[in-house]
Design a protein that fits this description.
With 283 residues, the chain is mostly helical. It is 64% helix and 0% strand. The protein has 16 helices and no strands. The longest helix has 17 residues. The termini are far apart.
Length: 283
């Protein structure tokens, strides 16, 4: 596939291909190679994908975003400038408003952008504002919800100061995203990350509401599927949840009564988990 950036329209290359087709991956690999070798830029590629990206049919727009995301995930970091990242952040923030079919590839694209170390000031907030406003987390598929949580985690790792300036907007956005999560894979990811979030962010007037979002899981009611040695265990989830409930002094006034209440439960797991909080040097 010879990319003549003056007249090439990549819609013709991709619109009739299934994403699982080997030719699809080969064409994406060629695009990645061309950018890494300096034959074109990510912005030129975006222009050549325009026929797909603005197509009135959602499945074609999804293909366009999928191609762009696959390229972003693999190109060398030296081949994308701050100015180009700025444009791509604007693009992906806008794509979060698009049809639900486009959202999975868009989330992956944002994760790819966050892997670069030179995201311009202000763009992270723009991405998160659009994410919180346009993508109801719990209405997404399991893996897409996980990618949202990864975006939140990566954002805090990369730009804690910028997110802390968002104050309650970020806290409320995180709380709303995780509220109602039921998948054990996602919960384990959250229970490992949320203690960091809780220690870094001022919960303010949302501290009780944030506690209740987590307390609804206590005690963990989960059975490991039989004969699945790679599955998540109840004890792992329970221990990680306890870390969340005891992660910040803001939760102390709510956590102690909860543990004492569950200690009198007839359920053995509730007693054990309560004791873990009360005598496990957590409080």
């Amino acid at each position: 596939m010879d990319l003549d950036m003056n007249n090439k329209n990549l819609k013709d290359e991709f619109e009739n291909l299934n994403k699982d087709d080997p030719d699809f991956s080969k064409k994406c690999s060629k695009l990645i190679k061309d950018i890494n070798e300096g034959l074109c830029t990510i912005l030129q590629l975006t222009e050549q994908l325009k026929g797909l990206l603005v197509d009135p049919v959602p499945v074609n727009r999804e293909i366009g975003v999928h191609v762009l995301t696959m390229v972003l995930e693999e190109i060398s970091h030296e081949r994308i400038s701050v100015a180009q990242i700025n444009v791509m952040c604007d693009f992906y923030a806008d794509k979060l408003k698009d049809h639900h079919q486009i959202i999975p590839a868009t989330l992956r694209g944002i994760l790819a952008l966050l892997s670069f170390n030179n995201v311009p000031d202000g763009q992270l907030r723009k991405l998160l504002d659009s994410l919180f406003k346009n993508v109801p987390c719990q209405q997404q598929q399991q893996h897409d919800r996980l990618n949202i949580y990864k975006i939140l985690k990566k954002s805090l790792e990369n730009s804690a100061a910028e997110l802390l300036e968002m104050d309650m907007d970020f806290v409320y956005g995180v709380m709303s995203a995780v509220d109602g999560e039921r998948d054990p894979r996602n919960l384990l990811f959250l229970f490992h990350w949320l203690p960091i979030f809780l220690r870094q962010c001022n919960l303010g007037h949302l501290r009780e509401e944030m506690f209740e979002v987590l307390a609804c899981y206590f005690p963990i009611d989960f059975r490991t599927p039989p004969q699945d040695s790679n599955s998540i265990s109840r004890s792992t989830l329970a221990s990680s949840l306890s870390d969340c409930l005891c992660a910040t002094p803001d939760f102390a006034e709510y956590c102690l009564p909860l543990a004492l209440e569950k200690l009198s439960s007839s359920l053995h797991i509730a007693k054990f988990d309560s004791l873990d909080i009360l005598v496990g040097e957590r409080l």
